[in-house]
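Hey, quick one: can you model this chain's 3D structure?
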Amino acid sequence: MPLLKQDKEEKPEKRQILQGLWFLFNVGWYIALSIVLPTALGLWLDAPERWNSRPLCTLIGFIFGTILAIYGLYRMFKQFLAAQKTDGTEKNSNKEQDSE
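Sure thing. Here's the predicted structure for all 100 residues.
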């Protein structure tokens, strides 16, 4: 029986893998939408029937979206690392309790 317990501890947990994949999925969509939506709004405002200021609003939208994406990525990554640190602390305390 001890061999089976060791094998389970060495394999990565399915939950951790899914959390990592979910984080990457969220980051990808967040970055894509943060850049695409303000840029599209800029293109729409730059149209000749609106402000006719091509490429000013498009560039402003792109720059704003990029800044928004970087800031959001920083916050998401910081939160993810805090959650990973908390999970690691819980695992270490569980291992110590099991060994006693």
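One thing worth noting: The chain has a mean pLDDT of 84.
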